[in-house]
Specification:
This protein has four helices and six strands; from the N terminus they run αααββαββββ. It is of the alpha+beta class and 156 residues long.
Length: 156
C-alpha cells in the first residue's frame, strides 16, 4: 500500500509539473537578455567614441573613485582619472580618436550582477594607422544598468 501511495503521489506530481510547464511558456534565458544588454551598452559606447564624444563613451563606466583601468604597466584609479587619460591620449593636440569597433566579444555572466567580458578592440585612424589590442572587463549591474568597474586593455 505504501508503494501504491508513493507511485500515485509521484505520478500526480509529474502531471502537475508538466501542466505547469505548458501553462507558463518559458521566456528567453535571463543570461541571454543580460548578455544582450551588455553588448548593447558596449556598442552604444563605441558609437559615442566614433562621434568624438568621450563623455558619452564613458557612460558605460562606473562613475566612481573605485573604477580601475589597467593598461601596460599602469593602473589608473577613478572615473575622472580614466576620462582624463582618454582625453590626454586621444583628444590632445596631435592626437585623434579614429573609429572604434569591437571584435569577438565574449560575455560570461558570473552571477546576477557581475559579468566578465573579453574581446578585441580596433581603431582606424588617419594615415593608415590601425591601433588594436585586447580587453578584459569586469561589469556590475547597478540600478542604472551594467557598468564597467574594471578595464584591462592592452594593444599595439
Amino acid at each position: 500500500m505504501a508503494r501504491s501511495f508513493l507511485a500515485l503521489t509521484l505520478s500526480t506530481l509529474v502531471v502537475f509539473l508538466l501542466a505547469g510547464a505548458r501553462a507558463h511558456p518559458q521566456s528567453p534565458a535571463p543570461e541571454a537578455a543580460e548578455r544582450d544588454a551588455i553588448l548593447a551598452a558596449l556598442n552604444a559606447s563605441a558609437a559615442e567614441w566614433n562621434k568624438g564624444n568621450l563623455d558619452g563613451y564613458m557612460a558605460v563606466y562606473w562613475n566612481s573613485p573605485d573604477l580601475t583601468f589597467s593598461s601596460g604597466a599602469n593602473t589608473t584609479r577613478g572615473y575622472q582619472a580614466a576620462l582624463d587619460r582618454y582625453k590626454r591620449n586621444y583628444q590632445a593636440p596631435g592626437r585623434e580618436m579614429g573609429q572604434l569597433d569591437y571584435r569577438d566579444v565574449r560575455v560570461d555572466i558570473l552571477c546576477a550582477d557581475t559579468a566578465f567580458v573579453r574581446g578585441f578592440w580596433h581603431l582606424v585612424q588617419s594615415g593608415g594607422k590601425e591601433p588594436h589590442g585586447v580587453f578584459t572587463l569586469l561589469l556590475r549591474k547597478f540600478p542604472g544598468g551594467w557598468k564597467i568597474v574594471h578595464d584591462h586593455s592592452s594593444g599595439e
